[in-house]
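Support reply, case 0932

Customer input (verbatim):
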Amino acid sequence: MSALPHHTPDPAYASPYRIEAHEGPQTLAELRAALAVIDSAELTAFNARLDAARFGADQAAVITEARHLVALRTRPEVPAAVQASLDGATDLMHVDDLWAELDKGVA
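Our regenerated output:
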């Protein structure tokens, strides 16, 4: 069975500003396949960074960075949101809403 991505359309991200844990590639095989489609040099660089990373937070950071790259390169809404933010064309979140959003992750 091939690890190459299927041609079924991916569902849109819940927010173009944040990647939730269930969005994007879910395994190293899926992440490597997505990076290979983007650019073989990106896959090579990812593998080198992952091999050099220490277990735990360092590996998680390498994987997170690669997942962000996949979202940025494959989802048109993500670079559009980044550009809108850079252009000042987005409505900024009120600080109370920000704290409420952050508190959702605290159990």
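We compared this against your earlier run and they match. Two observations from our side: The two ends are 40 Å apart (CA to CA). The chain is about 60% helix and 0% strand. Please reopen the case if you see a mismatch on your end.
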